[in-house]
Write a structure and sequence with these properties.
By secondary structure, the chain is α/β, with parallel strands linked by helices. The protein has 14 helices and 24 strands.
Length: about 500
């Protein structure tokens, strides 16, 4: 018998990715967008779809020298160039240099596809492919293809053209983004219900109305052949373009914690009680009632870091920066000069419509910019008092602490605990509201500051509740706040 010829499986190399260049998007896409594929960007009016397309082309030109074609079915090219003029890009220069080309099918300009009352859409494909070939384009952006539905009634013809255009662009080795609108509050991926099937991938942009400002979110709904993050991420639009804030992966295996390297508070007795200071990379929670000195202790920690040649960051969630500067000056610490020297940087944000992911990246960017070894977050309880739930605060802090640990950066997190005000004679530890957020499992150490009344006198007491991997004092100490900061005193006697 003749041996049957074995069938060979086709050679498949998988879908190649490429960097879009849009800050944060490539992280969401786990390394970039799929090359030579078409991706639908859908969303409500005003969510930034067109801006995403412009930046897609701009980053290709600026970062990779890739010419691009912008196909418009809505706005005239002159209007588009005017709209993006406020961004800090040299976008129009690429247009003048012939590296960026517009294919204008806007209703006020184009009549080529409306001939003698018939509906002829094949010239659309021909003109786009001609523009691609003319400048050797690698990226194409198409906005807003849904406008065809207001000009032509034959949905079947429009669908045919979309499939044809998608196939031709992929055959030419072009990576394409195109936009479509969805109705506000709709769960559909496109207004007409089939564009998502033409595309190889779908990115959905959403807007959310807050108390003081609009917030925005992005979600990848599908992306054939590649891995991507499925969760919802926040994004922002500024004069630099679009910035997407993907979650920071939690990977404690890369923590740069060193128990042999200790960072001092600048309070000798406290450093001694901590076993020589805070181990490098440790997160420390300082909890206590108002007026117990949490902010002052944080200032001392940063001032000591400056003296040790380190750069530092203060996250101001409660007191305005000018007030922080004045308080520091009252203790003899010249924070204003440190700011001018670039040794101390502040991170601020509004507690109204607080975006936790945006705040996280503000902190990350600032720490990276100054190379900070010490961070003070004043205070964590302000996050909970805004619109954030306990779980969102916890999620935020987990990401922050993991990031700082990878750098070996120490962080002091202040927490307002009202319940520690009235400590009875038999229960000096009182209760900890921080347990509700399970913060003790996030941080490496806890210092509790509290008041206690004895013989018609209010005393301030300090206790180190925990410090991972270190032998620390278990005593309860009295302390005072003087000019120059906190001064730790004798062990408290009942």
């Amino acid at each position: 018998m003749t041996e049957k010829k074995k069938q060979q499986a086709p050679d498949r190399t998988g879908v190649e990715k490429f960097l879009s260049g849009i800050p944060g998007l490539d992280r969401v896409m786990e390394g970039g967008l799929p090359r030579c594929r078409t991706v639908l960007v859908s969303g409500e009016t005003g969510c930034g779809k067109t801006i995403l397309l412009h930046e897609f082309l701009y980053r290709g030109l600026h970062d990779h020298g890739e010419p691009g074609v912008f196909v418009t079915f809505e706005e005239h090219p002159d209007e588009m160039l005017a709209n993006v003029a406020n961004f800090k890009w040299d976008y129009e220069q690429y247009y003048r240099d012939g590296k960026l080309l517009f294919a204008d099918f806007s209703p006020s300009h184009d009549r080529e596809i409306e001939t003698a009352g018939s509906y002829e859409l094949d010239p659309v494909v021909a003109r786009i492919l001609s523009a691609v070939q003319k400048i050797g384009a690698k990226r194409v952006a198409i906005d807003n293809i849904g406008m065809l539905f207001s000009r032509f009634e034959d949905i079947g013809e429009i669908r045919r053209i979309l499939f044809l255009l998608s196939d031709r662009l992929k055959e030419a080795g072009i990576s394409t983004l195109f936009t479509a609108e969805i109705e506000e509050g709709s769960s559909q991926l496109s207004r007409h219900g089939f564009m998502e099937f033409v595309a190889d991938g779908v990115i959905v942009l959403r807007t959310h109305v807050g108390q003081n400002q609009m917030s925005r979110s992005l979600q990848v709904r599908k992306m054939r052949g590649i891995d991507y993050r499925t969760g919802t991420v926040e994004y922002d639009i500024s004069d630099k373009g679009m910035r997407i804030f993907p979650k920071i992966p939690v990977d404690l295996s890369v923590a740069s914690t060193d128990f042999h390297v200790r960072r001092s508070f600048g309070v000798p007795a406290l450093d001694e009680a901590l076993g020589g200071g805070i181990p490098q990379g440790h997160m420390l929670l300082v909890t206590g009632n108002t007026g117990t000195g949490k902010t002052t202790l944080g200032m001392q920690f940063l001032q000591q870091g400056i003296g040790d040649g380190e750069n530092v960051v203060w996250v101001a969630m409660e007191e305005p920066v000018p007030q922080v500067l004045k308080t520091a000056a009252a203790h003899g610490w010249d924070f204003e000069t440190l700011v001018r020297q670039g040794r101390l940087s502040f991170v601020t944000c509004s507690l109204l419509d607080l975006s936790p992911d945006r705040l996280l990246y503000q902190i990350v960017d600032t720490v990276e910019a100054v190379g900070a070894n010490r961070v003070v977050f004043d205070s964590v309880s302000s996050l909970e008092s805004s619109i954030m739930s306990k779980e969102r605060v916890r999620e935020f802090l987990i990401q922050l602490t993991v990031y700082l640990k990878t750098r070996g950066t120490n962080c002091i997190m202040n927490y307002l605990s009202a319940e520690s005000f009235q400590a009875s004679s038999g229960n000096l530890l009182s209760s900890m509201a921080t347990n509700e957020m399970r913060l003790s499992s996030i941080v490496d150490g806890i210092i509790m500051l509290r008041y206690v009344e004895r013989e018609q006198t209010v005393m301030k007491l300090l206790n180190i509740l925990k410090l991972r991997g270190s032998v620390h004092a278990k005593d309860i100490f009295r302390y005072e706040i003087d000019t120059g900061g906190i001064r730790l005193g004798e062990r408290f006697n009942f």
